[in-house]
Amino acid sequence: MFSLGFTFTCAAKPIITIFTEQFPPYNFSNKGQLQGINLDIVRTLCELSQVECKFELLPWARAYDLVQKNQLSGLVSTARSAEREDLFYWVGPLVSSRTFFYRLRDNKHINPTDITQVSAYTLGVVRGNIYEGLVESIGFQQDKNLLKVAHHYEYMNLFFKNKIDLILGSEFALDYQLQQFGHGGKEVVKLVELPVNTLQGNYLVFNKEMPIEIVERFNEQLEKLKAVDNFDAYRHRYVQ
74 forms bridges with which residues in the sheet? Predict the structure, then answer.
């Protein structure tokens, strides 16, 4: 029997589609192989929960849309917020890190010292990303000082061409992003931390029509996995 996002094998074992995006080191494609800290954790949870999972890499906005439409589907990694709370079932928290604004090292004239000053400069974000609303709440405006793009590659390219002043990056993710542009991190300077008090970390989310027993099984196995070493073994695969 087959319907969009709702597939069973002959043994009536559900096959769950887990959507994800290119967001190293949490989830990303490396030479065609999907991996990452949180993706590896979720893959283990699928095995421990005795659920067959298939993973699909998509742009964030499309993945976020599809998980709300397809019954047997999930999305990793998803930041938890009040606005999203009722849209999904939540499994987590998984692994996350603090987020900062960065500038190019040579641009010494760009030097905000607190969060009230960053909106005096230009910034690029991924459209629909959780950071979009956060930066707008501190003064960034589209078509004024905020450029919204479909993928982080677009604003990173503009950043290194000096077309925008600032980028956002998590402490774990930024080095991976810079490496994709042939940089090692010395070209950028960490500035002001973006307050994320309204967020509760990265999660695996499930469509609200997912059978609740599957959601509970995943959360139970997550707690057991976390109790081993707080995910250190998974973290150390990608972050030293």
Answer: 18, 206
Please tell me the distance from the alpha carbon of residue 128 to that of residue 130, in angstroms, as a whole number.
6
**CA 185 vs CA 133, 191, 215: distances in Å:** 27, 14, 39
Question: pLDDT tens across 37-95, in order?
Answer: 999 999 999 999 999 999 999 988 899 999 999 999 999 999 888 889 999 999 999 99
Cα distance between residue 204 and residue 71, in whole Å:
15
Tell me which residue of 160, 158, 188, 163 sits closest to 173, measured CA to CA: 188
Structure tokens at 239: 């972050």
User: For the whole model, what pTM was predicted?
Assistant: 0.78
Kindly report the backbone phi and psi dihedral angles of residue 77, in degrees, each rounded to the nearest multiple of 5, phi listed first.
-100, 135
- Using alpha carbons, select from 40, 157, 152 the residue that is nearest to residue 99: 152
- Beta strand 73-79 with 14-20 is parallel
User: Which tokens hold the place of 216?
Assistant: 């509970």
Four-CA torsion 147, 148, 152, 157, nearest 10 degrees: -30
